Amino acid sequence: MDPTVVELNRKIDALATQVSYLSEQAQIAERQRQDRAELIRDLTPIVDEAFRLSVEQLEEIQDYVDLSDLLRLFKRLLRNGRNLDKMLDQLESLSDLLETVAPLADEAFGKAVDTLTEMERKGYFAFARGGLRLADRVVTSFNEDDVRRLGENVPLILNTANDVTQPEILNFVRATLRVAVQEVQKPVDLSILGLLRQMGDPAVRRGLALALRVLHVIGAQTSGAGESESGARDGGR
């Protein structure tokens, strides 16, 4: 075959390849143009609606905001960019801390709920409610003078309570009450002979002597007050 014809065929093939490539590129460009047109057609109503809503919202605040305010705010944001970046870093650190502490907080909350449930079961809250009602009754039953006198006598009350709550006193009262409950249930001989027989018991005589001694102390404590009241009545006459 003539070399000239071969070269011509090669050029024709190359030209056909280029034409095919250009045709494909034209088709791709056409498809992209159609996609853009379709996208614009779909977005146009959305953009129009967004623009309309923006205009309506801006009309509501146009009396309070002007362009200078927006520019000043924008400049402040630019000047404080580093501060905003630091604040975001702190928020991220706080978020990490919360993620670390959250399991511990959940565990502590669970333990607190269990403790409160156990306290409720044992009656702590019922006791507290009763204590509040008791405190309310005390507050409503005493006036200011009663509270003042109570405050003045608190040391005496505490000393008396300390004396009464001594172990030997409590043991004595407990033993006496236990024996007294047993003796009350027994028959009692009220005859003269029976009383005389009881007087022969050394424990009975000691008890009477102690009772008389206590009565003597009570009389001595009250004699001064009785004489003062009698003198006041005589003076009144």
**What's the overall geometry?**
rod-shaped
Task: Report strand %.
Answer: under 5%
Q: Estimate percent helicity.
A: over 70%
- What is the number of strand segments? 0
Radius of gyration: 53 Å
* Structural class by SSE content: mainly alpha
Q: Which descriptors would you attach to this protein?
A:
237 residues, mainly alpha, rod-shaped
What does this structure look like?
The chain has 237 residues and is mostly helical. Among the domains are: 1-65; 154-188. It is 90% helix and 0% strand. The chain contains nine helices and no strands. It has helices at 3-61, 67-79, 81-122, 124-141, 144-152, 154-164, 167-184, 192-199, 202-236.
Write the layout of secondary structure elements.
Elements: H1 3-61, H2 67-79, H3 81-122, H4 124-141, H5 144-152, H6 154-164, H7 167-184, H8 192-199, H9 202-236
